[in-house]
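Good morning N.,

You mentioned wanting to compare the apo and holo forms, so I went ahead and generated the holo version with 2P0. This is what I fed in:
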Amino acid sequence: MTEAAAIANANVALAKYWGKRDEALNLPYTGSISINLAGLTTTARVRFTDKRGEDRVIMSGRQVDGLEATRVRKFLDVVRQLAGRNCGAEVEVASNFPVAAGLASSASTFAALAVAATHAAGIILSEQELSRLARRGSGSAARSIHGGYVEWLRGEAADGSDSYAVQLAPPEHWPLGIVAAITDRGRKRVGSREGMAHSLTHSPFFPPWLETHQADLETIRQGILGRDLRATGSAAEHNCLKMHAVALAASPPLLYWNAATLAVMHRVIQLREEGMDAYFTIDAGPQVKVICSLPQREAIAAAIQAVPGVHDVLLSEPGAGARLVEGA
Ligand code: 2P0
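and this is what came out, ligand included:
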């Protein structure tokens, strides 16, 4: 097989990945826990050619060069090394949601690429191996290999062999609702990669972030297993605000929010006071994801859509893991 296509969903972290202990291997300082987002999907197609020339990378319909293409080429190098092949590739990637704006497009991109590229190269990996491989492209991609509720294990080994994601529970374990509020359609100014590196070296709050993270992981894991929305949601909000506190306290500071981000946060708190089960979380961008009970999702989405500055809302629920769509 020299050509294959795969799809993978984005994910939203409830306990965040923020800080690498190894930048080359994308090894995190902490574990993290996420929900796979149904319907926020990236398709990746990989074709290995006979020629040894440079890889051609097409993203959202246009050929890219520079950093974006370099990241994909480096990732393909890992696959080529695994497969013992040395050939060029043509890669096409397309997502059905706003990319590079804090909606985890690198997670779905590299999870889909891991599945497509290994099949195209003729190698079959276990889900654990795929997760480890996807991590090399983007840390959070390790989590998008699996469906439902997922924990990426920090691991201890210097070579990253024990740093991969596992499924905590399948999507049907707990059919939650997720609403993503789009408050800015542009690309974010500081990507996660630079943002976490800067936080690590320039924020006095990085050490306390590490010290308090394990407790959040445990609360969120138990909350998911026990289907306890209040425990899970409160701990996710707390963990999100701590991550942003780390970034805000960096010098110079990193401020990912805009006015609408903050307005949505206030609206979610108000919805809770009105008796709704809703909790917010925010990644390295201005969008807000709201975790809520599934029967209340439409009403919550309507309330969020009405917040001034919200361009759009996307509705999701826990979705399936990365999978091959062509080239089996
Ligand atoms: C997360 N983020 O846990 C955290 C929360 C952003 C904020 O994982 O450098 O794109 O490719 O490993 O995976 C985004 O970081 O970073 C991310 P790299 P990645 O979802």
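The chain has nine helices and 14 strands.

Happy to go through it together on a call whenever suits you.

Best,
F.
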